[in-house]
Specification:
Blueprint: H1 2-16, H2 19-24, E1 37-44, E2 47-54, E3 66-71, H3 78-88, E4 94-99, H4 116-131, E5 136-141, H5 143-152, E6 159-163, H6 168-176, H7 183-190, H8 198-202, E7 209-214, H9 222-231, E8 236-241
Parallel strand pairs: 3-4, 3-5, 5-6, 6-7, 7-8
Antiparallel strand pairs: 1-2, 2-4
Helix pairs in contact: 1-7, 4-5, 6-7
């Protein structure tokens, strides 16, 4: 029994030392190809935020009528997400800006939960300068939905697409609390910035939303996804699809 509590103490110590970032984020910085996308650097603090810009075939050589700010999952790079998003939005005349969070790809800084919300705002503000009065929509996947809801609660958006949205704190406690008597899970959950509280942010967004929900999600169970859906204040449509969390869903 003594070794059990010793192990719990070690876990708690790791959590206090910033375990939430290591637990939730899976960054990479090695070179990746980004087919049919162009690289844009946006100033963020003392560094740069890397964004990959793509246009679906429907746009051809004309100016976009709207823009999409795309925010990926915790282990996804903009370079690989961009082609999927181009396919999803391919029938519409939009320009898509897919963000690499700090510490991902060519974005400066280290990967941390606290750096992600300001990165979302920096990307939006740069896109707004490009879009002018033209509408901006948000497309978020998994962790990206938490950023998307934060941005949409602070900036005007025409609409938002949310695929497999996790309420991070509730998910950590509900899925991982049982094996550590909820001690370590509670400390990790408390390290999630309030800016990424999807349930609270969802209640502050009134733009039309489309929720794309995996019926067999092995990471964010449907019951957790539903908490974000139920909290959402604006009009919403739900699309359920068979498959797991990372199943590809295009247009």
């Amino acid at each position: 029994m003594g070794r059990f509590f010793q192990a719990i103490g070690c876990v708690v110590f790791c959590c206090i030392a910033g375990c939430a970032d290591r637990f939730l984020l899976y960054p990479s910085t090695y070179p990746l190809a980004a087919p049919n996308a162009s690289r844009v650097l946006v100033r963020m603090g003392n560094g740069w935020l890397e964004i990959w810009v793509s246009r679906p075939p429907a746009l051809k050589d004309t100016e976009p009528r709207a823009f999409v700010l795309a925010l990926s999952g915790n282990g996804t790079r903009a370079e690989t997400a961009s082609p999927v998003l181009t396919e999803r939005w391919g029938k519409l005349p939009v320009e898509i800006w897919t963000v690499n969070y700090p510490g991902y790809g060519g974005s400066a800084g280290s990967a941390s939960l606290t750096s992600i919300p300001p990165a979302g705002l920096a990307a939006y503000d740069a896109l707004r300068a490009r879009a002018g009065v033209r509408p901006i929509c948000i497309d978020g996947f998994s962790l990206g939905t938490t950023v998307g809801l934060y941005v949409a609660s602070h900036r005007p958006v025409a609409g938002i697409v949310l695929q497999n949205p996790p309420p991070l704190r509730e998910l950590i406690l509900g899925r991982y609390g049982w094996w550590n008597l909820w001690i370590a899970a509670l400390i990790v959950a408390e390290q999630v910035p309030s800016e990424l509280d999807s349930i609270q942010n969802a209640g502050n967004v009134n733009a039309p939303a489309v929720f794309i929900l995996a019926n067999d999600d092995q990471y964010v169970a449907p019951s957790f996804q539903r908490r974000v859906v139920d909290a959402y204040a604006g009009p919403k449509a739900l699309i359920h699809y068979p498959g797991g969390h990372n199943a590809r869903v295009a247009g």
